[in-house]
Amino acid sequence: MGTGRARARALPLALALLLACSDVAAVAAQGTERIQGSAGDVLEDDPVGRLKVYVYELPPKYNKNIVGRDPRCLKHMFATEIFIHRFLVSCAVRTLNPEEADWFYTPVYTTCDLTPWGHPLTTKSPRMIRSAIQYISKHWPYWNRTEGADHFFVTPHDFGACFYFQEAKAIERGVLPVLRRATLVQTFGQKNHVCLKEGSITIPPYTPPQKMRTHLVPPETPRSIFVYFRGLFYDTSNDPEGGYYARGARASVWENFKNNPMFDISTDHPPTYYEDMQRSVFCLCPLGWAPWSPRLVEAVVFGCIPVIIADDIILPFADAIPWEEIGVFVAEDDVTKLDTILTSIPMEEILRKQRLLANPSMKQAMLFPQPAEPRDAFHQILNGLARKLPHGKGVFLKPGQKVLNWTEGAPEDLKPW
Protein backbone atom coordinates (compact mmCIF):
# COMPACT_ATOMS: atom_id res chain seq x y z
CA MET A 1 0.00 0.00 0.00
CA GLY A 2 1.36 3.42 -0.97
CA THR A 3 2.04 5.96 1.74
CA GLY A 4 -0.08 9.08 2.20
CA ARG A 5 2.95 11.17 1.20
CA ALA A 6 3.30 9.27 -2.12
CA ARG A 7 -0.37 9.75 -2.87
CA ALA A 8 -0.08 13.42 -2.08
CA ARG A 9 2.76 13.77 -4.60
CA ALA A 10 0.77 11.88 -7.26
CA LEU A 11 -2.45 13.83 -6.77
CA PRO A 12 -1.46 17.16 -8.40
CA LEU A 13 -0.22 15.32 -11.48
CA ALA A 14 -3.45 13.33 -11.69
CA LEU A 15 -5.53 16.48 -11.40
CA ALA A 16 -3.44 18.11 -14.10
CA LEU A 17 -4.08 15.10 -16.30
CA LEU A 18 -7.78 15.34 -15.68
CA LEU A 19 -7.83 18.99 -16.62
CA ALA A 20 -5.77 18.33 -19.71
CA CYS A 21 -8.01 15.45 -20.75
CA SER A 22 -11.05 17.65 -20.28
CA ASP A 23 -9.52 20.36 -22.48
CA VAL A 24 -8.61 17.97 -25.27
CA ALA A 25 -11.69 15.76 -25.06
CA ALA A 26 -13.23 17.20 -28.18
CA VAL A 27 -9.99 16.82 -30.15
CA ALA A 28 -9.52 13.23 -29.01
CA ALA A 29 -13.13 12.35 -29.78
CA GLN A 30 -13.01 13.82 -33.29
CA GLY A 31 -9.80 12.05 -34.27
CA THR A 32 -9.55 8.33 -34.91
CA GLU A 33 -6.53 6.27 -35.78
CA ARG A 34 -6.57 3.29 -38.12
CA ILE A 35 -5.12 0.06 -36.83
CA GLN A 36 -1.89 -0.39 -38.74
CA GLY A 37 -0.34 -3.50 -40.25
CA SER A 38 -1.69 -7.04 -40.29
CA ALA A 39 -3.87 -6.50 -37.23
CA GLY A 40 -5.92 -3.87 -39.03
CA ASP A 41 -6.18 -6.00 -42.16
CA VAL A 42 -7.41 -8.98 -40.16
CA LEU A 43 -9.95 -6.88 -38.28
CA GLU A 44 -11.48 -5.68 -41.53
CA ASP A 45 -11.45 -9.05 -43.35
CA ASP A 46 -14.67 -10.33 -44.92
CA PRO A 47 -14.98 -14.06 -44.16
CA VAL A 48 -17.74 -14.70 -46.71
CA GLY A 49 -16.43 -16.86 -49.53
CA ARG A 50 -13.55 -18.20 -47.45
CA LEU A 51 -15.35 -20.99 -45.58
CA LYS A 52 -18.60 -22.95 -45.41
CA VAL A 53 -20.32 -23.99 -42.19
CA TYR A 54 -22.87 -26.76 -41.76
CA VAL A 55 -25.30 -26.21 -38.87
CA TYR A 56 -26.66 -29.41 -37.36
CA GLU A 57 -30.41 -29.53 -36.81
CA LEU A 58 -30.80 -30.74 -33.24
CA PRO A 59 -33.98 -31.51 -31.30
CA PRO A 60 -35.15 -28.27 -29.62
CA LYS A 61 -34.47 -29.65 -26.15
CA TYR A 62 -30.80 -28.74 -26.72
CA ASN A 63 -31.45 -25.09 -27.53
CA LYS A 64 -34.79 -23.42 -28.35
CA ASN A 65 -36.83 -25.09 -25.62
CA ILE A 66 -34.36 -23.99 -22.97
CA VAL A 67 -34.66 -20.35 -24.02
CA GLY A 68 -38.44 -20.71 -24.10
CA ARG A 69 -38.43 -21.84 -20.48
CA ASP A 70 -36.14 -19.05 -19.29
CA PRO A 71 -35.64 -16.00 -21.55
CA ARG A 72 -33.26 -14.48 -18.97
CA CYS A 73 -30.42 -16.26 -20.74
CA LEU A 74 -30.92 -13.94 -23.73
CA LYS A 75 -29.47 -11.11 -21.69
CA HIS A 76 -26.69 -12.54 -19.56
CA MET A 77 -22.98 -12.48 -20.39
CA PHE A 78 -23.01 -16.06 -21.70
CA ALA A 79 -25.68 -15.42 -24.36
CA THR A 80 -23.21 -15.61 -27.24
CA GLU A 81 -24.07 -19.30 -27.71
CA ILE A 82 -27.65 -18.32 -28.57
CA PHE A 83 -26.87 -15.42 -30.87
CA ILE A 84 -24.09 -17.24 -32.74
CA HIS A 85 -26.61 -19.98 -33.52
CA ARG A 86 -29.14 -17.45 -34.81
CA PHE A 87 -26.45 -15.70 -36.84
CA LEU A 88 -25.18 -18.86 -38.52
CA VAL A 89 -28.65 -20.05 -39.52
CA SER A 90 -29.06 -17.03 -41.79
CA CYS A 91 -25.41 -16.30 -42.63
CA ALA A 92 -23.99 -16.44 -46.16
CA VAL A 93 -21.31 -18.92 -45.02
CA ARG A 94 -23.93 -21.52 -44.13
CA THR A 95 -24.17 -24.52 -46.43
CA LEU A 96 -27.03 -27.00 -46.53
CA ASN A 97 -24.72 -29.56 -48.12
CA PRO A 98 -22.55 -31.11 -45.42
CA GLU A 99 -20.29 -32.69 -48.02
CA GLU A 100 -18.88 -29.26 -48.92
CA ALA A 101 -18.61 -27.97 -45.35
CA ASP A 102 -15.30 -26.81 -43.86
CA TRP A 103 -16.74 -26.68 -40.37
CA PHE A 104 -19.65 -28.27 -38.51
CA TYR A 105 -21.48 -26.46 -35.72
CA THR A 106 -23.53 -28.15 -32.99
CA PRO A 107 -25.91 -25.63 -31.34
CA VAL A 108 -26.08 -26.60 -27.66
CA TYR A 109 -27.03 -23.92 -25.11
CA THR A 110 -24.90 -25.06 -22.18
CA THR A 111 -25.37 -21.95 -20.00
CA CYS A 112 -29.08 -21.26 -20.54
CA ASP A 113 -30.41 -23.49 -17.74
CA LEU A 114 -30.38 -20.99 -14.88
CA THR A 115 -30.86 -21.05 -11.13
CA PRO A 116 -33.37 -18.64 -9.55
CA TRP A 117 -30.39 -16.30 -9.01
CA GLY A 118 -29.47 -16.33 -12.69
CA HIS A 119 -26.39 -18.56 -12.51
CA PRO A 120 -25.91 -21.35 -15.10
CA LEU A 121 -26.35 -24.90 -13.86
CA THR A 122 -23.05 -26.09 -15.22
CA THR A 123 -23.39 -29.56 -13.71
CA LYS A 124 -25.73 -30.33 -16.61
CA SER A 125 -23.54 -28.83 -19.33
CA PRO A 126 -21.17 -31.79 -19.90
CA ARG A 127 -24.11 -34.18 -20.08
CA MET A 128 -25.86 -31.92 -22.61
CA ILE A 129 -22.82 -31.79 -24.87
CA ARG A 130 -22.14 -35.52 -24.64
CA SER A 131 -25.78 -36.21 -25.47
CA ALA A 132 -25.73 -33.83 -28.44
CA ILE A 133 -22.54 -35.41 -29.80
CA GLN A 134 -24.02 -38.87 -29.43
CA TYR A 135 -27.04 -37.62 -31.39
CA ILE A 136 -25.06 -36.18 -34.32
CA SER A 137 -22.75 -39.20 -34.43
CA LYS A 138 -25.78 -41.47 -34.89
CA HIS A 139 -27.57 -39.32 -37.49
CA TRP A 140 -24.63 -38.02 -39.57
CA PRO A 141 -21.25 -39.56 -40.50
CA TYR A 142 -19.18 -36.38 -40.15
CA TRP A 143 -18.34 -36.46 -36.45
CA ASN A 144 -17.23 -40.08 -36.67
CA ARG A 145 -14.73 -39.52 -39.48
CA THR A 146 -12.82 -36.88 -37.47
CA GLU A 147 -14.09 -37.29 -33.88
CA GLY A 148 -14.81 -33.59 -33.92
CA ALA A 149 -11.59 -32.18 -35.38
CA ASP A 150 -13.57 -30.21 -38.00
CA HIS A 151 -16.33 -29.27 -35.55
CA PHE A 152 -16.61 -26.22 -33.31
CA PHE A 153 -18.57 -25.63 -30.13
CA VAL A 154 -19.42 -22.43 -28.30
CA THR A 155 -18.55 -22.77 -24.60
CA PRO A 156 -18.93 -19.28 -23.11
CA HIS A 157 -18.84 -20.16 -19.41
CA ASP A 158 -16.32 -18.73 -16.91
CA PHE A 159 -13.73 -21.44 -17.52
CA GLY A 160 -14.96 -22.57 -20.92
CA ALA A 161 -15.44 -26.31 -21.37
CA CYS A 162 -14.21 -27.05 -17.83
CA PHE A 163 -17.71 -25.99 -16.73
CA TYR A 164 -17.16 -24.73 -13.20
CA PHE A 165 -17.06 -21.19 -11.86
CA GLN A 166 -14.33 -21.79 -9.28
CA GLU A 167 -10.91 -22.20 -10.81
CA ALA A 168 -9.60 -25.03 -8.63
CA LYS A 169 -12.57 -27.27 -9.39
CA ALA A 170 -12.53 -26.26 -13.06
CA ILE A 171 -8.88 -27.31 -13.29
CA GLU A 172 -9.68 -30.59 -11.56
CA ARG A 173 -12.42 -31.28 -14.11
CA GLY A 174 -10.45 -30.24 -17.19
CA VAL A 175 -11.89 -29.76 -20.66
CA LEU A 176 -14.66 -32.25 -21.39
CA PRO A 177 -12.83 -35.27 -22.92
CA VAL A 178 -15.15 -35.59 -25.95
CA LEU A 179 -14.25 -32.02 -26.96
CA ARG A 180 -10.49 -32.54 -27.08
CA ARG A 181 -10.33 -32.66 -30.88
CA ALA A 182 -12.90 -29.94 -31.49
CA THR A 183 -12.30 -26.20 -31.75
CA LEU A 184 -13.76 -24.21 -28.87
CA VAL A 185 -15.17 -20.72 -29.24
CA GLN A 186 -14.95 -19.43 -25.68
CA THR A 187 -14.72 -16.32 -23.55
CA PHE A 188 -12.10 -17.86 -21.29
CA GLY A 189 -8.48 -17.37 -22.24
CA GLN A 190 -5.43 -17.72 -20.02
CA LYS A 191 -1.95 -18.85 -21.02
CA ASN A 192 -0.82 -22.32 -19.95
CA HIS A 193 -4.19 -23.15 -18.37
CA VAL A 194 -5.86 -26.56 -18.54
CA CYS A 195 -9.21 -24.96 -19.38
CA LEU A 196 -7.83 -23.28 -22.51
CA LYS A 197 -7.65 -25.77 -25.35
CA GLU A 198 -4.95 -25.16 -27.93
CA GLY A 199 -6.49 -23.63 -31.03
CA SER A 200 -9.46 -22.11 -29.21
CA ILE A 201 -10.94 -18.87 -30.51
CA THR A 202 -11.22 -16.38 -27.65
CA ILE A 203 -14.22 -14.07 -27.94
CA PRO A 204 -15.67 -11.19 -25.89
CA PRO A 205 -18.55 -11.91 -23.53
CA TYR A 206 -22.03 -10.84 -24.58
CA THR A 207 -23.12 -7.32 -23.69
CA PRO A 208 -26.41 -5.93 -25.08
CA PRO A 209 -25.39 -3.71 -28.04
CA GLN A 210 -28.65 -1.83 -28.35
CA LYS A 211 -28.72 -1.04 -24.64
CA MET A 212 -25.22 0.42 -24.79
CA ARG A 213 -25.97 2.44 -27.88
CA THR A 214 -28.94 4.12 -26.21
CA HIS A 215 -26.59 5.47 -23.53
CA LEU A 216 -24.06 7.16 -25.82
CA VAL A 217 -23.13 10.71 -24.82
CA PRO A 218 -21.86 13.44 -27.18
CA PRO A 219 -18.25 12.69 -28.19
CA GLU A 220 -17.07 16.08 -26.94
CA THR A 221 -18.12 15.23 -23.36
CA PRO A 222 -15.09 15.85 -21.08
CA ARG A 223 -13.54 12.83 -19.40
CA SER A 224 -13.56 14.27 -15.91
CA ILE A 225 -13.21 10.94 -14.02
CA PHE A 226 -9.65 9.63 -13.82
CA VAL A 227 -10.22 5.98 -12.79
CA TYR A 228 -13.62 4.27 -12.74
CA PHE A 229 -14.89 0.91 -11.49
CA ARG A 230 -18.20 -0.53 -10.36
CA GLY A 231 -18.51 -4.11 -9.16
CA LEU A 232 -17.66 -6.61 -6.45
CA PHE A 233 -14.47 -6.39 -4.46
CA TYR A 234 -15.30 -9.41 -2.30
CA ASP A 235 -17.61 -12.31 -3.17
CA THR A 236 -18.66 -13.18 0.35
CA SER A 237 -21.34 -15.62 -0.82
CA ASN A 238 -18.93 -17.96 -2.61
CA ASP A 239 -15.65 -16.97 -0.96
CA PRO A 240 -16.38 -16.22 2.72
CA GLU A 241 -12.73 -15.81 3.70
CA GLY A 242 -12.14 -13.27 0.94
CA GLY A 243 -8.77 -14.48 -0.31
CA TYR A 244 -9.72 -16.54 -3.35
CA TYR A 245 -12.08 -14.36 -5.37
CA ALA A 246 -10.16 -12.47 -8.08
CA ARG A 247 -6.98 -13.86 -6.49
CA GLY A 248 -7.25 -10.93 -4.08
CA ALA A 249 -6.73 -8.28 -6.80
CA ARG A 250 -10.11 -6.62 -6.39
CA ALA A 251 -9.81 -6.60 -2.63
CA SER A 252 -6.43 -4.89 -3.04
CA VAL A 253 -7.97 -2.21 -5.28
CA TRP A 254 -10.56 -1.44 -2.62
CA GLU A 255 -8.27 -1.48 0.39
CA ASN A 256 -5.65 0.73 -1.27
CA PHE A 257 -7.77 3.22 -3.21
CA LYS A 258 -11.23 3.48 -1.63
CA ASN A 259 -10.30 6.86 -0.16
CA ASN A 260 -8.18 8.07 -3.07
CA PRO A 261 -9.91 11.01 -4.85
CA MET A 262 -8.47 9.92 -8.21
CA PHE A 263 -10.39 6.64 -8.01
CA ASP A 264 -14.17 6.58 -8.47
CA ILE A 265 -14.76 3.01 -7.28
CA SER A 266 -17.77 1.46 -5.58
CA THR A 267 -19.97 -1.62 -5.35
CA ASP A 268 -22.96 0.49 -6.41
CA HIS A 269 -24.25 0.15 -9.97
CA PRO A 270 -25.83 3.53 -10.75
CA PRO A 271 -28.26 4.16 -13.64
CA THR A 272 -25.57 6.43 -15.12
CA TYR A 273 -23.03 3.57 -15.26
CA TYR A 274 -22.58 3.69 -19.04
CA GLU A 275 -22.48 7.48 -19.10
CA ASP A 276 -19.89 7.49 -16.31
CA MET A 277 -17.62 5.19 -18.30
CA GLN A 278 -17.74 7.67 -21.18
CA ARG A 279 -16.66 10.41 -18.77
CA SER A 280 -13.67 8.39 -17.57
CA VAL A 281 -10.08 8.23 -18.75
CA PHE A 282 -9.31 4.78 -17.35
CA CYS A 283 -11.69 1.91 -16.59
CA LEU A 284 -10.49 -0.90 -14.37
CA CYS A 285 -10.99 -4.39 -15.83
CA PRO A 286 -9.80 -6.75 -13.07
CA LEU A 287 -10.33 -10.49 -13.11
CA GLY A 288 -13.22 -11.96 -11.14
CA TRP A 289 -13.67 -15.69 -10.80
CA ALA A 290 -12.26 -15.92 -14.32
CA PRO A 291 -9.80 -13.48 -15.93
CA TRP A 292 -12.34 -11.98 -18.36
CA SER A 293 -15.09 -9.47 -17.67
CA PRO A 294 -17.88 -7.65 -19.59
CA ARG A 295 -16.19 -4.41 -18.49
CA LEU A 296 -13.60 -4.98 -21.19
CA VAL A 297 -16.29 -4.76 -23.88
CA GLU A 298 -17.90 -1.74 -22.24
CA ALA A 299 -14.58 0.09 -21.90
CA VAL A 300 -13.70 -0.39 -25.59
CA VAL A 301 -17.16 0.60 -26.81
CA PHE A 302 -17.17 3.71 -24.63
CA GLY A 303 -13.60 4.74 -25.41
CA CYS A 304 -12.39 4.35 -21.83
CA ILE A 305 -8.84 3.02 -21.69
CA PRO A 306 -9.09 -0.51 -20.21
CA VAL A 307 -6.76 -1.21 -17.31
CA ILE A 308 -6.42 -4.98 -17.52
CA ILE A 309 -5.57 -6.68 -14.23
CA ALA A 310 -5.44 -10.40 -15.00
CA ASP A 311 -2.09 -12.15 -15.26
CA ASP A 312 -1.51 -14.20 -18.43
CA ILE A 313 -4.89 -13.32 -19.91
CA ILE A 314 -5.54 -14.10 -23.57
CA LEU A 315 -7.78 -11.35 -24.88
CA PRO A 316 -10.57 -11.56 -27.48
CA PHE A 317 -9.46 -11.61 -31.11
CA ALA A 318 -5.88 -10.89 -30.07
CA ASP A 319 -4.62 -11.25 -33.65
CA ALA A 320 -6.96 -8.48 -34.79
CA ILE A 321 -7.17 -6.06 -31.86
CA PRO A 322 -3.91 -4.38 -30.70
CA TRP A 323 -4.57 -4.71 -26.98
CA GLU A 324 -1.08 -3.59 -25.97
CA GLU A 325 -1.68 -0.31 -27.79
CA ILE A 326 -5.21 0.46 -26.56
CA GLY A 327 -5.00 -0.85 -23.00
CA VAL A 328 -2.85 -0.72 -19.89
CA PHE A 329 -1.70 -3.99 -18.33
CA VAL A 330 -1.06 -4.10 -14.59
CA ALA A 331 0.21 -7.25 -12.88
CA GLU A 332 -1.93 -8.55 -10.05
CA ASP A 333 1.00 -8.09 -7.64
CA ASP A 334 1.31 -4.44 -8.72
CA VAL A 335 -2.23 -3.37 -7.89
CA THR A 336 -0.96 -1.34 -4.94
CA LYS A 337 0.97 0.82 -7.43
CA LEU A 338 -2.04 1.61 -9.65
CA ASP A 339 -2.02 5.30 -8.85
CA THR A 340 1.68 5.66 -9.71
CA ILE A 341 1.39 3.54 -12.85
CA LEU A 342 -1.57 5.46 -14.29
CA THR A 343 -0.34 8.94 -13.43
CA SER A 344 3.00 8.14 -15.08
CA ILE A 345 1.53 7.51 -18.53
CA PRO A 346 2.44 10.41 -20.87
CA MET A 347 -0.40 12.51 -22.25
CA GLU A 348 0.64 11.66 -25.83
CA GLU A 349 0.19 7.97 -25.09
CA ILE A 350 -3.24 8.53 -23.51
CA LEU A 351 -4.39 10.50 -26.55
CA ARG A 352 -3.17 7.84 -28.97
CA LYS A 353 -5.00 5.12 -27.06
CA GLN A 354 -8.15 7.24 -27.18
CA ARG A 355 -7.80 7.76 -30.94
CA LEU A 356 -7.43 4.01 -31.50
CA LEU A 357 -10.41 3.31 -29.26
CA ALA A 358 -12.44 5.79 -31.31
CA ASN A 359 -11.95 3.61 -34.40
CA PRO A 360 -15.45 2.25 -35.27
CA SER A 361 -13.98 -1.10 -36.38
CA MET A 362 -12.50 -1.59 -32.92
CA LYS A 363 -15.85 -1.11 -31.21
CA GLN A 364 -17.70 -3.20 -33.78
CA ALA A 365 -15.45 -6.20 -33.26
CA MET A 366 -16.49 -6.43 -29.60
CA LEU A 367 -20.25 -6.55 -30.18
CA PHE A 368 -22.84 -9.16 -31.19
CA PRO A 369 -25.59 -6.98 -32.71
CA GLN A 370 -28.91 -8.35 -33.97
CA PRO A 371 -29.09 -8.33 -36.91
CA ALA A 372 -25.38 -8.84 -37.55
CA GLU A 373 -23.31 -6.01 -39.00
CA PRO A 374 -20.06 -5.95 -41.04
CA ARG A 375 -16.85 -6.58 -39.03
CA ASP A 376 -18.77 -7.37 -35.83
CA ALA A 377 -17.80 -10.12 -33.38
CA PHE A 378 -19.74 -12.75 -35.35
CA HIS A 379 -17.59 -12.02 -38.40
CA GLN A 380 -14.40 -12.03 -36.31
CA ILE A 381 -15.28 -15.57 -35.20
CA LEU A 382 -15.70 -16.61 -38.83
CA ASN A 383 -12.36 -14.96 -39.62
CA GLY A 384 -10.78 -17.04 -36.87
CA LEU A 385 -12.29 -20.24 -38.29
CA ALA A 386 -11.19 -19.30 -41.83
CA ARG A 387 -7.60 -18.77 -40.66
CA LYS A 388 -7.53 -22.37 -39.37
CA LEU A 389 -8.18 -23.72 -42.88
CA PRO A 390 -7.27 -25.91 -44.61
CA HIS A 391 -7.49 -28.70 -42.07
CA GLY A 392 -4.32 -30.69 -41.62
CA LYS A 393 -3.84 -34.27 -42.75
CA GLY A 394 -4.37 -35.57 -39.22
CA VAL A 395 -7.97 -34.40 -39.08
CA PHE A 396 -9.47 -37.43 -40.82
CA LEU A 397 -9.14 -40.75 -39.02
CA LYS A 398 -8.37 -44.04 -40.67
CA PRO A 399 -11.18 -46.62 -40.88
CA GLY A 400 -11.78 -48.05 -37.43
CA GLN A 401 -9.39 -45.61 -35.76
CA LYS A 402 -10.50 -44.12 -32.44
CA VAL A 403 -8.86 -41.32 -30.47
CA LEU A 404 -11.38 -40.12 -27.91
CA ASN A 405 -12.35 -42.19 -24.88
CA TRP A 406 -16.09 -41.91 -24.31
CA THR A 407 -15.88 -43.45 -20.85
CA GLU A 408 -13.38 -40.86 -19.60
CA GLY A 409 -14.52 -38.07 -17.32
CA ALA A 410 -16.26 -37.41 -14.02
CA PRO A 411 -18.91 -40.04 -13.16
CA GLU A 412 -21.57 -37.33 -12.95
CA ASP A 413 -20.75 -36.22 -16.52
CA LEU A 414 -21.31 -39.72 -17.91
CA LYS A 415 -24.97 -39.94 -16.86
CA PRO A 416 -27.62 -39.63 -19.61
CA TRP A 417 -29.18 -36.25 -20.29
TrEMBL record:
Record's GO cellular component terms: Golgi membrane
Localization terms from the record: Golgi apparatus membrane
Pfam family, one: Exostosin_GT47
Signal sequence segment: 1-29
A Gene Ontology molecular function term of the record: glycosyltransferase activity
InterPro entries in alphabetical order: Exostosin (IPR004263), Exostosin_GT47 (IPR040911)
Top-rank taxon, per record: Eukaryota
Presence of keyword Transmembrane: yes
Transmembrane portions of the chain: none
Key words of the record: Glycosyltransferase, Golgi apparatus, Signal, Signal-anchor, Transferase, Transmembrane
Topology with respect to the bilayer: Single-pass type II membrane protein
Residue ranges constituting the Exostosin GT47 domain according to the UniProt record: 50-345
Family: Belongs to the glycosyltransferase 47 family.
Protein name: Exostosin GT47 domain-containing protein
Organism, scientific name: Urochloa decumbens
